Amino acid sequence: MQLDEFAELVRSRRTHMLVDQGRAVPDDLIDRLCDLATWAPNHKRTWPWKFASCTGEARFGLGEAFVADMIDRDFGDDGKRVKTMTKYGRTPAVLVVGCAPHENASLHDENRDAVAAGIQNLLLGATAAGLASFWSTAPILDGEHSLAFCGFEPDDRIVGVIYLGWPVSTVDAPDRPPVEVTHLG
Q1: Which residue of 5, 142, 146, 176 is 20 to 30 Å from 57, comparing CA positions?
Q2: Close Cβ partners of 114 (under 8 Å, ≥ 6 residues apart)
Q3: Spatial distance between the Cα atoms of 151 and 155, rounded to a whole number of angstroms
């Protein structure tokens, strides 16, 4: 792949959930996308990535776990909690991406950065596979119920909730400001 081809892939990735609700995303494709995430740079090879794929009724179980965490933390009003209970059903697959902690503060931050970079790999892979994707944030990043639901450890943190599905429509790319680079030397 040449730089121009890669640039086209990057520029063609859109954030949206205009998907076919009846068409499942195969588990093996989700596994391949998660594998792509693990190829992001990872200082000291701490391998901090955690993944939980939710399909079918598990998407609503994820919503229930998030709402339990919201109640525990007195976060959000009743309207937000009702929306959270069902919103993970908006796409056929929802992928929760977590991050393992590190006792060293710098490596702890670098772990999160590595997971975020991995999510970008995953999103580009989803685009290349023909999927629509949407990177969202969990209502509570370290909630006891949601971490347990996903099979994560109590001190892990959720970095992203990725909606995945087969697109039924497209969205236009938003305008970007021109890039400004300070060249030194």
Answers
A1: 142
A2: 40, 41, 42, 43, 46, 48, 49, 99
A3: 12
